[in-house]
Structures are given as C-alpha cells and as structure tokens.
Amino acid sequence: MSETTDLTASLDPAAWTCPAPLSEQSRVVMGHGGGGMLSAELVRDVFAPAYGGAVLAQAGDAAQLALGGVRLAFSTDSFVVRPLFFPGGSIGDLAVNGTVNDLAMSGARAAYLSCGFILEEGVGLETVSRVAEALGAAARAAGVEVATGDTKVVEAGHGDGVYVNTAGIGLIPAGVDLRPQRVVPGDVVIVSGAIGVHGVAIMSVREGLEFGVEIESDCAALGGLVDTMLAVTPDLHVLRDPTRGGLAAALNEIAAASGTGVVIREREVPVPPAVANACAVLGLDPMYVANEGKLVAFVPREHADAVLDAMRTHPLGTEARIIGEVVEDHPGMVVARTGLGGTRVVDLPVGEQLPRIC
Amino acid sequence: MSETTDLTASLDPAAWTCPAPLSEQSRVVMGHGGGGMLSAELVRDVFAPAYGGAVLAQAGDAAQLALGGVRLAFSTDSFVVRPLFFPGGSIGDLAVNGTVNDLAMSGARAAYLSCGFILEEGVGLETVSRVAEALGAAARAAGVEVATGDTKVVEAGHGDGVYVNTAGIGLIPAGVDLRPQRVVPGDVVIVSGAIGVHGVAIMSVREGLEFGVEIESDCAALGGLVDTMLAVTPDLHVLRDPTRGGLAAALNEIAAASGTGVVIREREVPVPPAVANACAVLGLDPMYVANEGKLVAFVPREHADAVLDAMRTHPLGTEARIIGEVVEDHPGMVVARTGLGGTRVVDLPVGEQLPRIC
C-alpha cells in the first residue's frame, strides 16, 4: 500500500482511502478501520444487526452497564499501529491509554484491563518484552491492573510483529451520566490541549519525514484529568477522546447523536506550529488527525469557566480552552467559523487520512 | 509453514514445534501460542514481570476480581483459527464460546462481551458478515450480550482475513470458589464428554483429510452445564475447559498449581472411534488435542456421584464420566494407567500439535 498516495491526493475527505459507501463495497478497505463514515457504516450495517442488543447501540466510547447492582463502563480496542515504537510512546502505551481513556469518557476510572497479544512467528522476543514492559509501565501510571491475558501466534507473513487488544472495566461514579444525548444548545465546547500531535508523530517516523523539531505523541491516560473535571461538577454532558478521525469525527458523532449543531471558532482550536507545518507539507487537515491524550468536553454554560479553570490546574489540561458552542441551527452538523469571518462545514471523515495510527 | 511436518514428526511432545525453552529462544515460534510449556514460560518470564500485579498470578482461565462490592470474573481470548469456517462452527462461535467458557470455569455466567475485529484489507464483507452473524447467534445462545466493539483494518498481507478478540465479564455466585489451589488428594476427576473432537474437526478441513465420517467441532457454551453442576453443590474445587494443549495441559496445570498428583485411567477417557482413527493417521495423542465444548472438574469425593448424575441430565454432559482421581504421590505430575496395567507420565506439552486451532 502506498500511504503517500492517500496523504497527498486531496484535502477533500471524500477522496481519502475510499469514496464509495459500504453499500457499494464488497470488500474491506483500509477506511473501514479509520473511525469515520465507513467505520460507522460497518457497525450500523454489519455488526449491530448481527449482535442485536441495546447496549451496543449507545455508540459511545465505552458501554455503560449494570451488573450486580453496580454501574460499570466496559470498552475494548485493538492496536495495530506501525511502527510499534514512535516518539513519545509505543503500541504498549497506546494499548493501555486507548482503553483507559475510553472508560474515562464515561467518567469511569479504569480498574482492570485484559490484554490479548497476536504475535507473528519470528518477531524478536526482545521486541515482545519491550512492548510488555511499556504496557506494564503505562498501566501503573494510569493506576489500572492488567488482570488477565492471552497470546496467540500466527505464521510469519500473517501478522505484523505485534498486535495488541485490550478491554477494560471501571466503576462509573454515582451522579455521573455522560452521553451525547444530554448535549443541549448553549453547551460550551472545551478541548483539553493541542490537537493533531499523535498522528503527526507517527507519520514523521513512518515516512521518515523531518519537520525541524521532533514531534512526540501526546499519548497519555486521561483518568486523572477527568476526575479533576468531575470534582467541579458531576453534571458534565459528554466527554470524547478524539482519536481516529480526529476532533472532526468526535464533534460530528456528538452532533449527530444529540441532534444539535456545533459551531467551532477555528482560530481557537490549538494547533502547534510544528503540527500545522507538518500538515501543510502532508496535505492533512489537523482537525482530522488522531490524538491520544486529549479530550473534548461539552459542558453546561454555567459550569464552563469553573471546569476550564480546574482543567488548567492538571498537567494534561494546562492548554485547555473553549473552542465553540452548541446551537439550535443546523442540527447534526459541525460548522467552523474561519479566521476570515467565513464558515465551512466540518464533515465526518469517510475513512482515515492515516491508516494504522493506533 | 508446513504443518504436516509438525504433525507426523513424532509423538514425543518435546519434538513438537520447538524443543528449546524460552531462555534459549530469541524469536517467537508457533509454540508460544500453543497453550503448553512455551506459552507458560512466555507468561512467567515476559508478561508477569512486566505487568506485576497479583491478579494475573492466579493463573486460571479467568481473573476473579472485586469491583464495587461485587465479585466478577474477567477473561479474554484472541481467535486466529484457520479456516474461519469449519464443520460444527466458525471463528464467530469460538470467539463467544471460548470466552464464555473461561468465565464459566470460575462459576460465572457470562453477562457481557467486548468484541474486537482485526480485518485484512480485501477480505469480503460477506465473510465479515457471516462471522458477525455467527458470533451474534452464539452470543444469543449463550445468553450473553455483545456490549462494545472495535474494528481495525490492516493492509493486505498483514493479517489473515479475520482475527477476533473477545473479553467477557460475569458475576461469580456467592459461595463459589473455584481454584486449583483447592484441589486435595481424594478429589475425583470428571470429564464432561468425548475429547479431541474440535482439533480433529479443524485438521480434517485444513488438511483435506477424510476419516470416513465427518467430524464436527464440539464448540459449545458451557455456562448451563456449570450451573447444573453448581446446583448440586457450590463446593466444586476446580473446573477447566481443556482447549489448547488438550486434556493433558489442563490436568498438568491443575496438578502443578495444587501441588497434588493426578492419576487418570486411560481406558476411561472417552475418545470417539473417529477421533482415535484420525489421531492414529496424523500421529497425534488425543490427550493433547484441543476441545471447545468440554470441561474437566475436580470434585470432592462425597459429591462426585451426585455431580456426575446431574451432568448427565444436561445435553452437554450426557457422556460425562469419572476418569481419575487426585493422589498424594508424585505431586505436580499427571500419570495415566494404561489398559495393559502399566503407567505413563502425561507431560505438559511444549508447544502445540495443531497451530491456530482457536
């Protein structure tokens, strides 16, 4: 696969990876794993009908369950990132933080992780050890315990060194109810810091590009930051970590699920100069680039300033800022006000600009 | 990879897949995923030190956890079986039943599953749909809900069509405490039915072999059978589903963890004629062939007859029988009394006779 073809072909999301909707596809394309429209169609048209069930239909980052009288968050992610090690992290860090953050977006502090490895015959055991050690260290940093695991091996040429799956469970605190359906016009949209960093960090090593300064992934566990925010008020409306598909996908999912319109002030969206430069070179829009240590929060207006102040006291929220608001107009749609006073529609991406980013 | 080389080379487990211990290996071999000695070494030498934590050290099929005042079982498995569809089941059935059964071995009825797909670019969407539908049907049959999912796509040539990971959670009933450490001399060893069926079913399609009759996988969810057994008494000592590594691996793990000796009467171990014939042709020992719908139970002697009677009333236990007992002699070792009055040691397999059986 030539990834540079995808990257430089077009700024138009419709041209990425695969333009045709699922109904016109007969085979899996890279975009089905991209967290955009094709991923959503796969869930809607293939998985949801096959599994049935009301829980999957919640369409959040984590399922919210009742079991034995307690409220649990439960989530899973597989990780197929290339390369396995990159500036600021590794597949082991992603495997912990990706799932821990999905739980945190329900307000749950991750308690236990499962961890399944699919190893390719011939990969060095030293590589496996480095991944496992990174995973263990990330788990300790996030305060989550790896409780159970599994390892499978596939023949050389049928994998890619190391794939990792994690699933996680955690308790949802009383009084916390984070769902896109709670979003209402007037809510304030806050982002916890600079966007686009993880995706650009991966690309810089994958394509051997140099952007003057090394860009390190922002990969981090967001449980502590979320606790800080919930200490201000449990009445946040929704949290989302903008991973695959970037901030654009996260905002679109919330707009669609809540039936409200979202307006972003493009100038307020924090994009570091190094990320902006790299995106210009690569033909990417930072709004669509994956993050792994950021969150976007939809907060009732009366709590917004206090939540923002609290976020800025946390090491992962020092650059938090208000980037927009929820409106009654254009329900289900995300619109950006540009620096020049115009507006543009921020679409849900079709596929993924950068395959195998996590 | 030539699998027939592994299969016909030797009946000696030490010759399978890879004879050298982990400490002498520098690269991953197929046997690291086989559920035998190499798998155990990988956990002991790589994963356990990296993760730390007391829960993983329990070394059961599922972790037993306390969360919010309730006792949970939590387990994960990845599935890389080839082919995806086989007589009696599919990777979708295995993905449900494998995890459901791991939970059942803790006495827990599975409540929720997570499900992560790693798809290979180019695989037919119709194939993905068939797997998802099989998975959904198996979940409904097992009474478990698919609560959360994830899909990643890797480039053509970096996967094998469809890999599936599931993780599951369920409540452990009050009074149930199933652990190998509870096994004591005098305990009776019960197997729920014929062994070796799943592995031979996979081999028959993979190698295009004909054994006169089609052998169908025994793939099934064991939660109902376990409930039937626990209704007799919650005081069972340990349950184990003998998947990778077969009955031999399950018995060895329990002997090692309990520090007791296990004696099996070889004539009592139920091996269907078709499985025995296939194993003779392939040079396999049925004791080492994977099962996917059977369990082995270590039961206090005073409850053994009642538990056996109850098992036989359940569709998945009609052929249940006592195959041996726990002794004070040869702690940590499994010995089979042969039909000719002799004895042989039943070793833990080193790797796996049949790679990618689940």
TrEMBL record, chains A, B:
Domain of life where this protein originates: Bacteria
InterPro entries noted in UniProt: HypE (IPR011854), PurM-like_C_dom (IPR010918), PurM-like_C_sf (IPR036676), PurM-like_N (IPR016188), PurM-like_N_sf (IPR036921)
Domain PurM-like N-terminal span(s) in chain numbering: 61-172
PurM-like C-terminal domain mapped to chain residues: 185-330
Pfam family, one: AIRS_C
Family from the record: Belongs to the HypE family.
PANTHER family per the UniProt record, alphabetical: CARBAMOYL DEHYDRATASE HYPE, HYDROGENASE ISOENZYMES FORMATION PROTEIN HYPE
Record's protein name: Hydrogenase expression/formation protein HypE
Organism: Streptomyces macrolidinus
Species classification: Bacteria, Bacillati, Actinomycetota, Actinomycetes, Kitasatosporales
